Every structure is written in C-alpha cells, then in structure tokens.
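cache lookup: miss for this entity combination. No prior model stored, computing from scratch. Input as submitted by user K.M.:
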Amino acid sequence: MSFAYSEADKAAIYKVIAERRDMRHFLPTPIASELLQKLLQAAHHAPSVGLMQPWRFIRISDATLRHSIHKLVDEERKFTAQAIGEFDDTDRMAEFMRLKVEGILDCGEVLVATLCDQREKHIFGRRTLPEMDLASVSCAIQNLWLAARAEGIGMGWVSLFDPQQLAQLLNMPEGAKPVAILCLGYVNTFYKSPMLVEEGWTTEKPLADMLMENGWQNNERQP
Amino acid sequence: MSFAYSEADKAAIYKVIAERRDMRHFLPTPIASELLQKLLQAAHHAPSVGLMQPWRFIRISDATLRHSIHKLVDEERKFTAQAIGEFDDTDRMAEFMRLKVEGILDCGEVLVATLCDQREKHIFGRRTLPEMDLASVSCAIQNLWLAARAEGIGMGWVSLFDPQQLAQLLNMPEGAKPVAILCLGYVNTFYKSPMLVEEGWTTEKPLADMLMENGWQNNERQP
C-alpha cells in the first residue's frame, strides 16, 4: 500500500517549500483573525521532542508595545553592524546598515514566538541535547511560514534582539525565552530569490556542498 | 493582487502538515536515490539566518557504521531512562524503556543532520542568539519531513545520543555538531496520532494553551 499523495498534491507541497521567502516588505492590510488562527494551528501541528510542545506565541496587538519591540530590534541592528565592522570591515558594516532587516512597523501582525518555562522537566530526547526544544519551536515556525505562503501571506523571522530585554518587555517568567519576532502580512510581491541574494549581500551554495557520505569530508567547493 | 494558492493546493499543504508523524516503525524497502535527492532539495530550500545555510547531511550507507550509531543511541536510551527514573519514578522509567524510540536498524535510509563548522563567522541575526543556526537546520529538517510524508515516506528524528561521541564516529571537525539522526523509510502505516499519545506516554495540549496577547499570562489550563 502506498501512502504517497497525488502528483498534484505533491507539486503543491514542493511549490510552497520553494516559494516561501523570509519577507521584510509588507502591506499594512490586516490579517483576519480566523486566518491567523488557521496559521497558528498549522504551527501547532509541529513535531516536538518527547511531545513537550514547547512553543508559545504572544500576539502583539498593542501599538505602543509594537513600537517598543521595534526599538529593541533597531538597537540590536546597530550593535550587529558594529560587530560585523569589527569582524569584517567598515564596507561590510555599511552594506549591512543599508539592508532592510525587518518590517515590524509595516506588517499586519506581529507575533513573538517563545520557548516555554519549566523546560527542565522534559528529559526525553533532551538529556544530552537540551536545545531540542528550540528545534521543535523552529519546526512549528516553519509550518507557520509554509501555511502563510500558501495563503498569500509573507512572513519574516527577526532574530535581531536581546532576548533578556524582550523577555522583560513581555513579562516573561524565568526559564521562558523569546526566539523569534515574526512579522506577518500581505505583500506587494514575494522576492524571486532570497532578499539577501537579491540585495547582493551573499550568494547561495548548492545542495551538493551540504552532502557527505559515512563521515565528514571537506565538501566545500574551492572557488 | 492575491498570491494565495488555489483551494486544492492549500488543502494539500494543510493536509501534509497535519499528517506528518515522527515515525519509529519502518519497512526495510530502500528509497530510490533520485527520490532521496528530491527530499534533500526540499530541506535545502529552508530559510537560514543571514542565509548561512548551516545544515550538512551525512548519508549513512555503511552497515557497520549504522550499527555503531545504533549502539550509541541505545546507550543514551539507558542513561535517559535512569535520568527519568531519578526525576520522576521507577514506573515512569519502566514505561520509557518499553517505548520504541528509534528505527535505525529497520529503516531504508539513515541521515545524520549536523551544524557546520566555522559558524562564528556568521554574525547576522546571531550576535545575541547564536543558536539561530540550529533553528535554520530545524526548518530544513521540517521541510524534509513534510516532503517525505507527501511521498509516502516516514521519518523519525532521533536525538537520543551523545553529540561528541557521534561527532567523533563521523570524523567531524571542531565546531561542527550533529543534531539529528534521521530515519527515513516506507511504512506499514502512519500513526493516526503521535506515537507517544497512542502509547499513553503523554497527551497533547490544545493550541489555546499556547497563545497569549501583549505579554506573558499564565495560560496553562487548570486540570
């Protein structure tokens, strides 16, 4: 017995995987709450280590709070630019500062995705790899991303923030940790390629560079 | 202009998100290498922080190596059981030992997913949250999981292993880190619910428990 989906269904799934983009440009059009709920339900179908379901989502509907979150991100953007300047050079720093790295004030919805508190209770699959809770939350976010793309909604994952400051802003308890500011919204267009490629910030490496067999080999192609 | 997919395409995408399972029971039928390549290409379409593409996949085609990996997992299974016994009680430990936690020796393909080395070069989106590389690899694994389900192939993510020992077994360089042993294979049936629910290990909490607005609230339902 085959459990494979129809060719049409498979094509839709491969299409959404290929067409999903990390968006920074949004239209302000609001997202209907039923639709947002549907997207969150897709996230909630994610796998999780030991079925701990460590994801929590905080919807930011308060405009003042949205501005405070934007401010945190903008501060970290400058610290990141400095760090890039020190590691690379000032040209690279200037290039970074020209990039649009978030659309927090422009998008229809802002969600903060966080790791729950009291995670130490969950040992299954985490004794040697406690960070598997983040892996589970990331799978949930990827589900949300794909469902959003299918609905014609763009999403951007912003990780330019100080997690302690954001946790404080959101009254999060000890042990809980924010891992993503998610901007969701309708868009004028989806980027054809990842925005960082379109903007000339970096290039993509091919799959062949990522594959090895039976052990680590130096698989990086020489330029 | 709407970028939403057709109703049929959206339905296929929601279906695969809902029907994906973390599998532990497999048939030994091999997976055609073109199909495996297609699944890996789906993984490779994942988003990544600063477009760093930190995922590496090591295909385990050597039977002896597969057995060595299984041995590592079985050792960690016993350490985990002990830790659960100490944290909870001996009944819970016994329940854990009765669960099938992996299908490494049964499945058609084993892949090890790892974080690449030299990750410290990538500052964008990681200055305050260096673990965003794991988030990216997890998105890639979720893509692989969904594509596999659409192809009628089950996948299980095993995180019961000592990452240092597995890294050594695979000759991984300093800085690289294995984060998943992925079992892929055809199956007799897909679990109707997550296996840990079917086996009575735990129950699932509803989405409503995961949602908050404008800050952390005690959203856990009272029993």
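stored under new cache key. Chain B touches chain A through 102 residues (CB under 8 Å).
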